[in-house]
Design brief:
about 450 residues; alpha/beta; FAD/NAD(P)-binding domain; Enolase-like, domain 1; 3 domains; seven-stranded mixed beta sheet; five-stranded parallel beta sheet; 22 strands; about 30% helix; globular; binds flavin-adenine dinucleotide
Length: about 450
């Protein structure tokens, strides 16, 4: 046996790296096994590179469209190499930060691929490390569409974010958060985008009123959308890819599949260690992340509920607190906000209006266009919307939905209100600073009872 630890975390993404730090904070001898880079896919291949490119797309778009604001930029252009370098350096910097935090907290880093032994210890290469508790945090991998393989012209999301050249034309299959982000970045950078969704709306999980705002915005961003149209007959050539969708066909430089992901469990030796899976292939856990082997926990994209970094991190905290006997409570999955960083951003928590009605609530709705509050005109963010879905009985906020340039920052207030069990009536009385877009939130709460000042 190489060494023994109270806790060994396999996977150093947002789930695993946070779990390891929390575990060390609790005084437990902790190691993290990572076969690639600290920070996991989120920091190195997904969330962070995506947002870095989106930020440049936003600046470029603003530079070209701000003459009315008194800003004339005559020669705005994209330096693809510089953009690629910045994308990489932002990820490297944050990944280095994670390593620094591990070191600071005396978390031992073990480089290599980890798997479980039959007695629930951890094997890396030829070494076996004894573990009191193991936290599995190996995340998820991209899935191609059936019958299609990833290659030079058919890309997964990382392939799309790391292209060595700017494509003239790209198609994105799957208009969930990732697909919409890729479409919105490339569209604003000047690439012609075809965004295709098999279901009947883009951002299928979001409220219809919110999606309408995004659809309108996408039309101005070089993005053609097609919904209810599965992509089929994909033929990848040397310099382009052809395919059909519904009754139409297209030929583009690249086809990006931003659809599904599957838990990265194959190399973990789960069945030998008595760790069971759900029918959908995710690891079966209780509300604290404990698997069917009581010594082993699983968190993040490996387990059910939304595949989001902040959800993974909190599950990591809960798992190691629970394992150490520290008082904790399960993550309230209903209060994990979704965040899509297309332009305009979309953020939501809880139920859509349709889902709340379907669940049998007597629903009231409050809606306010961002343009109603002064800040939105000042900051050129008028097209968005705040929508609250409330239960008419006591005023409980069942769902909150925001579309606007900074929606992903704004949603935290609604999460906090809901977590603290505030109703829309309380929200309507919280004084917000002026002039900010956040004023649309309490005004939206007032629209439920029809007394918003600026409606
Ligand atoms: C393009 C894209 C954009 C996204 N943007 C956002 C966003 O803006 N906000 C958000 O909240 N979520 C976003 N997500 C989702 C987010 O990336 C995931 O939910 C999050 O990364 C899950 O964290 P995790 O810790 O479970 O796993 P991961 O981040 O996948 O990390 C798992 C780590 O485990 C390592 N590993 C795997 N197997 C082994 C092994 N056997 N031994 C050792 N190490 C191993 C991997 O190398 C990896 O580093 C995005 C996803 C994609 C694809």
């Amino acid at each position: 046996m190489a060494d023994s630890f109270d806790v060994i975390v396999i996977g150093g993404g947002p789930g695993g790296y946070v779990a390891a730090i929390r575990s060390a904070q609790l005084g437990r001898k902790t190691a993290v096994v990572e076969r690639d880079k600290p920070g996991g896919r989120c920091l190195n291949y997904a969330c962070i590179p995506a947002k870095t490119v989106l930020h440049t797309a936003e600046l470029y778009d603003q530079a070209r469209n701000s003459a009315e604001l008194g800003l004339v930029v005559n020669d705005a252009s994209i330096d693809w190499d510089a953009l690629g370098k910045r994308r990489a350096s932002v990820s490297d910097s944050l990944s280095g930060g994670v390593k620094m935090l591990w070191d600071k907290n005396k978390v031992t880093t073990i480089e290599g691929a980890g798997s479980l032994t039959s007695d629930g210890n951890v094997k890396v290469g030829d070494e076996v490390y004894e573990a009191g508790t193991v936290v599995l945090a190996t995340g998820s991998v991209s899935l191609p569409i059936p019958g299609v393989e990833f290659g030079d012209r058919v890309l997964d999301t990382w392939g799309a974010w790391s292209l060595p050249e700017q494509p003239k034309k790209i198609a994105v299959v799957g208009a969930g958060a990732s697909g919409c982000e890729i479409a919105s970045a490339y569209g604003r950078l000047g690439t012609e985008v075809l965004l295709i969704e098999m279901l009947d709306q883009i951002l299928p999980a979001e409220d219809k009123d919110i999606v309408r705002v995004v659809e309108r915005a996408f039309k101005k961003q070089n993005i053609a959308t097609s919904t209810g149209t599965p992509v089929e007959n994909v033929e990848a050539g040397d310099s382009s890819v052809k395919f059909t969708y519904g009754d139409s066909s297209a030929e583009v430089d690249y086809l990006c599949v931003a659809g599904g992901r599957a838990p990265d469990v194959e190399a973990l030796g789960l069945s030998e260690a008595g760790v069971e899976l759900e029918e959908n292939g995710k690891v079966k856990v209780d509300e604290y992340g404990r698997t069917s082997n009581p010594k082993v926990y699983a968190i993040g994209d490996l387990v059910n509920a939304k595949a989001l970094a902040h959800k993974a991190s909190e599950e990591g905290v809960v798992a190691v607190e629970h394992a150490s006997g520290t008082p904790t409570h399960p993550v309230d999955q209903k209060l994990v906000a979704g965040a899509t960083f297309c332009q305009p951003q979309v953020a939501s928590v809880g139920l859509t209006e349709a889902a709340a009605k379907e669940a049998g609530y007597d629903v009231k709705v409050g809606k306010l266009k961002l343009g109603a509050v002064g800040g939105a005109t000042v900051y050129d963010d008028r097209d968005g919307l705040v929508k609250l879905v409330v239960d008419s009985k006591y005023g409980e906020i069942l769902g909150a939905h925001i579309v606007g340039n900074r929606a992903c920052d704004m949603i935290a207030e609604l999460v906090a209100t809901m977590a603290l069990e505030g109703g829309y009536q309380e929200l309507a009385r919280i004084v917000h600073p002026h002039p900010t877009i956040s004023e649309a939130i309490f005004e939206a709460a007032r629209t439920v009872d029809g007394w918003a000042t600026h409606a």
